[in-house]
Amino acid sequence: MKLGRIAVSGPDGDVARLVLVLPEEERVIDLKRASVLALEKQGATGESARRLSEALFPGSMSAAIGLGERFLDAARRAEKERPDEASIPIGDVKWLPASDPSVVRDGLTFIGHIKGFHEKIGHKPHESLLKVPGYFKGTPHTVIGHDAEVPWPGYIQHMDYELELGYVIGRRGGNLRPEQARPYLFGITVFNDFSARDRQSIEMPIQMGPTKCKDFAYGVGPWITTIDEFADLDAISMEVRVNGETWGKGTSANKLWSVDELIAWASLGEVLEPGDVIGSGTMGGGSALELDRKLQPGDVVELEVGGVGILRNRMGQPQSGLWWPEERTPFM
């Protein structure tokens, strides 16, 4: 099952709606509208039908996932009935980020990218990569969806994409072991960790993690495919295209740390929440840095993941007039 979020125009502006995505039929089903119709057919009043449907299908994907099987059962009923009255042509949809996570986590698990990235920056991979599954935390407030324009802060000169899977968490949990982790995985989306390579080279030696080189935009979409549709999480096809030209192609195989280990590690000493997104890390050859290339304003980046779909974003124009700190004199 494929589930997404769209913006629907209302009297007070756009509101978020959850949809069942039917790419083969080139349409989506507004889940709240489908629920209202079904309840009214069963004798519910319009007001009561809308109240219950809003609870089952809020605008927040994270809140809906938090309902557990009740949400999935209601979505499955809509998938079975597929009411035309609740359909919207897929070409008319304004997409929102597939999930609205409480925090963004992004891992580093693909051996090919670890090697390729470090070769380009002229450093050997640190031995700590062999000790724990590395990841960083990013802000959830700059997550963008399919077909959204990517903000380009003017302090960035070397812009890059990163082709990743997005692991969407389905249950609240903490201190998990790898063998306990899989039931906490709700589904998979496409994740683009947009990166400012010139700023990254300045920030990372501070040893506080990435900030302005990452937090300007994270692409999540176009929708989520539930985990039951994937037979093998290490055999998912992945491809990136820029302006229609293939720049990278591979699979989800050859990882240093498994999906279950990454989820378990992220849960240690803290709590995972429904709807949280954990990036898999970049596929080997899944960044322009590994190709000695970089993005330009106006470029269209398409990340395609087998079993999910295509996350497409156009790079915006650099924003001028932004403040940047002046370098300080040495204090040592």
UniProtKB/TrEMBL annotation:
Keyword annotations: Hydrolase
Biological classification of the source: Bacteria, Pseudomonadati, Pseudomonadota, Betaproteobacteria, Burkholderiales
Superkingdom to which the source organism belongs: Bacteria
Occurrences of domain Fumarylacetoacetase-like C-terminal (ranges): 103-314
Recorded coiled-coil stretches: none
Gene3D superfamilies per UniProt: Fumarylacetoacetase-like, C-terminal domain
Any GO molecular function: hydrolase activity
SUPFAM superfamilies: FAH (SSF56529)
Listed name of the protein: Fumarylacetoacetate hydrolase
Alphabetical list of Pfam families matching this protein: FAA_hydrolase
